[in-house]
Structure formats: C-alpha cells, structure tokens
C-alpha cells in the first residue's frame, strides 16, 4: 500500500525509523486539517492543504503501524486513528496518486489547528526564534538575498553571512520548472528523485520578520489565492549533521516542463555556487536536463 505520512513518521521526525525499509516517493499534499495534539499531530477532514510524504510499505509494516496508531480494523469504534483512503498530489510532477492516511477519530478539546499544514515546519516554529531557510536557487547569492532583505540593514546582512551553512537536500535534484506568472523562462525548483540524488544548497538564519519578506518574494500567497511556492519543513544535511529547515517548493499548479532559466537568473545561481563552494556538477546536470528533457530517462 501507499502511506501518506504527515507527522512523527516524516523524515527527520522521531518515528521515521519505522519507515527505514519503506520506499519513499517524496513529498506530496492532500486536503484536510492538521491538529496539534501535543506530542504528535492529528489529521481530520477539512479543505486546507496538508503536507507530507508518500511511502510504499509492505503488509507486515502496515500491521505494525496500525498497532502504533491505535487502529483496530475489526473494531473501528474503539480506534484512536482510522486508516482511510486519500488522494495525494506529488510535488515532483503534479501527479495524483491513491494512498492511505491515519485520521484522528476522537473528539478533543485540544483542536489547535496547524494552519501552515506542515508538521515539520510547525515544530521548528514553536519557539518563535530564528528560522533556518534552505536556498538552492537565486537566494544562494549573498548579494541577491541582501537586496531582498535590505530594509533590515547591513549589520543584519553581515550576521546572516557569518552563520550560513552549506550542505545538501538528499534525495532531491535541482530543476527549472517553476512557471513565471508573467511568462518567460522558468525559476528554480527541487524535485524528488530518490536514493543517490543530491541538490547542493545552503541554509540562512533568518528572523521571523525576514522570513515574511521572503514569503512575499516567493509568492507563498498568490494574487489569485494560489501559492506559487509552499514553504515546508525538510531535512537538510549540513556539514556538521542533519537538521530540519524550511524550503520553498513550487506548487504543483505552477510547474511546467523543464526549460533553461534566463541568463540573469542563472547568474545568481552560479554566483551562489562559487561563494559557498558548492559542486557545480549538479547545476550543470540540471541545465542539461532543462535543455534536453529526453536526456532524463524518467521522461
């Protein structure tokens, strides 16, 4: 079966080791409502966007997960969670797949909605402090990011530069398939490509006020109410270990076939790769795929 995981089973969360032998199909979204239930999250029916990951799991693992989630197939009335079918839309290509997810089945007075719809992001925001933002596109460039955040002054820009961490998004690769609202060459995006794939990136330390500005620049709320990018939580492999940070991933409604970016936009990436010592091989591979889609065997 395919499982849509949205809480503590997600990569980087405390129960993800249960899915060590499962095959991950990458991040996806469904419709529902996500609740903060204390140490874990609960999914209930709703029309908000909920972010998670899809896994292919074997029957023995499904039975074990049923036990952990308190789902009794022969006695749904006494179950803490119910396993139900959902339609999940993959970020990678916008395709919709059938999966199952565990829905919270009890009435609770702790119905605090996780309005961002993303458990990993929510967990990193609980204390209200600085946010680690993953940059893989134009925000790699120190100059580009400083211009976007110029209202916060040069002292804050120096602090950001002093704390930037290079690393990678494991299992993902760089692509250029984010549509421009005004038309023309696309922007950068990441797509899940599975084991062995890697997208070089850095993480910047931003204040909550700064992340609001970047949200506006990245179009997390579009003019027509549809986000251009979603800001979601994601494991990031820094040089000194694994961390959970925030990353902008294109809304599946705003993706197209990969194509070459504009020279001006590409210059931001090349500058960022040089500044942070990132391996340019991954960037060049993305450009080859963008210029010749048939080179990608998955097409």
Largest sheet: 6 strands, antiparallel
The CATH architecture assignment of the largest domain turns out to be Roll
Structural class: alpha+beta
Radius of gyration: 20 Å
Run of helices and strands = EEEHEEEHEHHEEEEHEEHH
Strand content: 35-45%
Helix amount, in percent? 10-25%
- The total strand number stands at 13
CATH superfamily of the largest domain: Gamma-glutamyl cyclotransferase-like
Give the domain tally.
Answer: 2
CATH topology assignment of the largest domain: Hypothetical upf0131 protein ytfp
Low-confidence stretches are none
End-to-end CA span: 25 Å
What is the CATH level 1 assignment of the largest domain? Alpha Beta
Q: Mean pLDDT, nearest integer?
A: 93
Identify the overall geometry. globular
* Number of helical stretches of at least 4 residues: 7
Structural descriptors:
299 residues, alpha+beta, Hypothetical upf0131 protein ytfp, five-stranded antiparallel sheet, 13 strands
Polypeptide structure, described:
With 299 residues, the protein is of the alpha+beta class. It has two domains: 2-121, Hypothetical upf0131 protein ytfp (Roll); 127-295, Gamma-glutamyl cyclotransferase-like (Hypothetical upf0131 protein ytfp, Roll), CATH 3.10.490. It contains seven helices and 13 strands. It has helices spanning 59-69, 119-125, 142-148, 153-163, 208-218, 263-276, 280-291; strands at residues 2-5, 23-36, 41-56, 81-90, 96-104, 112-113, 131-135, 165-170, 172-178, 187-192, 198-206, 229-238, 241-250. Strands 1, 2, 3, 4, 5 and 6 form a six-stranded antiparallel beta sheet that branches. The chain has a five-stranded antiparallel beta sheet with strand order 7-11-8-12-13. The chain is globular.
């Amino acid at each position: 079966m395919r499982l849509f995981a949205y809480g503590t089973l997600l990569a980087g969360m405390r129960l993800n080791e249960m899915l060590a032998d499962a095959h991950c199909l990458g991040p996806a979204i469904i419709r529902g409502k996500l609740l903060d239930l204390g140490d874990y999250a609960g999914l209930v029916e709703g029309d908000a966007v909920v972010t998670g990951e899809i896994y292919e799991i074997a029957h023995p693992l499904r039975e074990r997960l049923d036990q952990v989630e308190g789902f009794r197939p022969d006695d749904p009335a006494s179950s803490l969670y119910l396993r139900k079918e959902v339609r999940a839309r993959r970020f990678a290509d916008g395709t919709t797949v059938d999966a199952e997810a565990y829905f919270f089945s009890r009435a609770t007075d702790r119905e605090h909605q996780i309005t961002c719809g993303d458990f990993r992001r929510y967990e990193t925001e609980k204390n209200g402090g600085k946010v680690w933002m993953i940059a893989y596109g134009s925000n790699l460039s120190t100059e580009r990011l400083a211009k976007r955040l110029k209202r916060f002054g040069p002292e804050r820009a120096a602090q950001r530069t002093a704390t930037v961490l290079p690393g990678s998004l494991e299992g993902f690769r760089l692509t250029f398939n984010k549509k421009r609202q005004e038309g023309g060459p696309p922007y950068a995006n990441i797509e899940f490509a599975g084991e062995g794939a890697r997208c070089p990136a850095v993480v910047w330390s931003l204040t909550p006020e700064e992340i609001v500005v970047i949200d506006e620049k990245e179009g997390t709320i579009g003019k027509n109410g549809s986000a251009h990018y979603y800001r979601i939580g994601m494991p990031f492999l820094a040089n000194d270990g694994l961390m959970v940070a925030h990353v902008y991933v294109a809304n599946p409604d705003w993706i197209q076939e990969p194509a070459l970016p504009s020279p001006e936009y590409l210059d931001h990436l090349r500058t960022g790769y040089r500044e942070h010592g990132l391996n340019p091989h991954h960037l060049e591979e993305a450009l080859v795929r963008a210029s010749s889609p048939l080179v990608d065997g998955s097409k």
